[in-house]
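Narrative of accomplishments. A recurring question from our advisory board has been how the design workflow behaves on a single, concrete structure rather than in aggregate. To address it, we present the structure tokens for one chain from the evaluation set, followed by the sequence designed for it. No filtering or post-editing was applied between the two.
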């Protein structure tokens, strides 16, 4: 039983990327779809699609550049038992220059750069580099 679809989705993404897989599937949720759209927008994955069958799933094509995965690590900041919220002034920038911190705000799922630009804080979901 999956307690958190977003955590499961991000761990599947990390494992597929590090194992050299070209794509993976995960159970569908609107939040996971928003995360996948953000990752595609920031060029961490190549593409994603949602199946129309009775059991909805997200199919994600993992991004590579010269056979090197674009995602080399994921750190989960919020977990089902411990949520991590920050004000806009306390949002971190990440470990590397190319890090992406996923934030769930009242305006939707966005990166730390977008949240700082809009001046809103929220739940820190994960950091991807």
């Amino acid at each position: 039983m999956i307690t958190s679809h977003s955590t499961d989705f991000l761990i599947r993404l990390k494992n597929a990327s590090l194992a050299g897989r070209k794509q993976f599937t995960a159970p569908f949720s609107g939040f996971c779809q928003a995360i996948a759209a953000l990752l595609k927008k920031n060029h961490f994955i190549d593409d994603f699609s949602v199946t129309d069958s009775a059991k909805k799933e997200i199919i994600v094509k993992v991004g590579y550049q010269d056979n090197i995965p674009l995602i080399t690590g994921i750190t989960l900041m919020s977990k089902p038992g411990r949520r991590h919220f920050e004000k806009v002034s306390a949002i971190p920038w990440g470990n590397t220059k190319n890090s992406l911190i996923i934030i769930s705000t009242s305006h939707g799922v966005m990166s730390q750069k977008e949240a700082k630009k809009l001046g809103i804080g929220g739940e820190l979901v994960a950091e991807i580099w």
